[in-house]
Amino acid sequence: xxxxxxxxxxxxxxxxxxxxxxxxxxxxxxxxxxxxxxxxxxxxxxxxxxxxxxxxxxxxxxxxxxxxxxxxxxxxxxxxxxxxxxxxxxxxxxxxxxxxxxxxxxxxxxxxxxxxxxxxxxxxxxxxxxxxxxxxxxxxxxxxxxxxxxxxxxxxxxxxxxxxxxxxxxxxxxxxxxxxxxxxxxxxxxxxxxxxxxxxxxxxxxxxxxxxxxxxxxxxxxxxxxxxxxxxxxxxxxxxxxxxxxxxxxxxxxxxxxxxxxxxxxxxxxxxxxxxxxxxxxxxxxxxxxxxxxxxxxxxxxxxxxxxxxxxxxxxxxxxxxxxxxxxxxxxxxxxxxxxxxxxxxxxxxxxxxxxxxxxxxxxxxxxxxxxxxxxxxxxxxxxxxxxxx
Length: 390
Fold this sequence. Notes:
CATH superfamily of the largest domain: Winged helix-like DNA-binding domain superfamily/Winged helix DNA-binding domain
Number of domains: 2
Radius of gyration: 22 Å
Strand content: 15-25%
Largest sheet: 6 strands, mixed
Number of strands: 14
């Protein structure tokens, strides 16, 4: 079992906050973390997709009354958004008794933005945390073979730790099928599974491309508005990332549509039926796949208030990833699959435009070394360690 870095942070959050929401896609390891916490903290676990457990919390005040000495863990909490209103009264009552922390742990498979809409009544009483798939610092810090395996299989534990590439691919195909046929319909949208699978696959083919909604709409024979609805859904489920463009007014024409990434590289490869590392190297998506893999790993360790962007102009200035820190400090990051990276003219032009404080080229080697004009070539795990120190 791989120790997840976030586990200790969740324990710390429960020591200072009455409730914590741990969010992440299905099968990413949230329940495992909750069970690990229960080994040292008296807890009661309820899965709100289980009819019997759901019945237990219909009167949450009574259930809490019988378990007030335990941490109550509610899994798949987005299934019962109305539960948050009565929880406010419970938390305030416990605070008056002097019990100010560690009352509830919520596990959810929807985005923070979506869950916040349901839990507004708990403002000031809840901390939000996102569990990403397993990342390079947790699994592959000093091993290129492990890093490549993580890239090919993705960071879902069952996929990454499978006995073979074929078993891993089979697991990911099952994961995709389950989302399309069971999980998404349970959330309410009436979208044919075949249509949504085609949409998801088209995003994978165009990994890292600027969104062209009209092109996607024509290929699916739907409207641009419908494409926006599909994209919202996949983003809310933490399966797709919209990377916003840097659009600060600089007197230049800028590309203003977002870039779109399927967030887990292993899911990208499963959607495209790429079974192993050698097959990936020969596939047209290899560059976009590596770019998305690097971005997701970086965002898994970036401080919560750091905002990610990309930068592009019609004249060719381009920065793959900009990290903007509180106070306005910016890091510019070029992403190269090559083990002997070179710097594009577009990156130089982009840096001239936005004037970042630090400039990196993330590449596929293991050594850190200086390049031109204060640019550092750096392995992915090393850059992630830099972010963990921020």
